[in-house]
Amino acid sequence: MGGAPLISVVIPTYQRPERIRRTLLHFEKVRFRPADYELIVVDDGSEPPLEAATLAAPDGVSLTVLRVPHGGSGAARNAGVARARGELIAFLADDCEPDSDWLQALAAAHAQHPDCALGGGIVHGLPDDACSTTADLLIQYMRSRANADPLQATFFTPNNLAVPAAGFRAVGGFDAQFNPAGEDRDFCARWVESGRRMISLDGARVLHTHSLTFFGFLRMQYTHGRGSMLFRRVMARRNGGGVHLEAPGYYAGLFMFPFARPGEFGLRHVALLAVSQVAVAAGAASVYWGRRRRVVGAGGELVA
Question: Which of 30-34, 76-80, 231-235, 294-298 has the lowest mean pLDDT?
């Protein structure tokens, strides 16, 4: 590889300097040869700007800190990949802490399946936070539906996703119009449509600790609803059909999902699940019925 690292770890961050510092410090516990990976932190237009001098990487590990205009995590990840030197891009969120063998597990799977995208396991780290736990429940359910066959998976969130750099660039990376949600579903769909495979790796785990207030939870679900409807519109244009919604059985399964794990979820999570779907529906409706404004910049370009 001419001295280039095997793995480039790309971590977007926005307005959370303490959180990204904690995540980087956690790499001291990651068992992987320092010369075989690099860390790329992308500041997505934080105000005040993230101070690169306050960030540190383990001895021998290359750390690059980029600052880009605020455009969402998808655009920030693309900027990180543009500077990456590795043959495998490992995406991590700034509120996730990798297991000590995370990079080893990704490297081993990449060696066995060099052309495949790899989705690692996500361990929920805030079981006493009801809103955060319900948000995790929703992702668990989506992944269980999409990845029933681990060797033919179709959806991963980009807080623990590794992608061959050549394949990522070939499919066009993340679509920045999905801001701040939906870029993961769109990317995974385009990856699979291109004939490439996605594989679920339970062993390559990260600990996810995203605390949520009730109103933060509602805002997140509303945003996800907007991203979901935009994704469905994009898929309809791409496939030449109409906008397709989930079948009733999808939602029936969603509300049965917590009862299959009684030690993990309770009635308060079911109640929050119901509230979340109202927020998701409101977000989706705002995109479906809303009119897109066309704003022309001073140079005549379409800017919105």
Answer: 294-298
**What is the spatial distance between Cα 299 and Cα 297, in angstroms, rounded to a whole number?**
5
Q: What is the dihedral of CA 258, 261, 263, 266, to 10 degrees?
A: 10
Domains and CATH numbers, the chain: 7-289 (3.90.550.10)
pTM for the model: 0.92
As to burial, measured by CB atoms within 10 angstroms (0-12 exposed, 13-18 middle, 19+ buried), residue 19 is: middle
Q: Are 57 and 26 in contact (CB under 8 A)?
A: no
Q: Rounded distance, CA 58 to CA 216, Å?
A: 33
For residue 113, pLDDT over 60 is answered with yes
Q: Distance of CA 115 to CAs 110, 152, 176, Å?
A: 8, 13, 24
Q: How many residues does the chain have?
A: 304
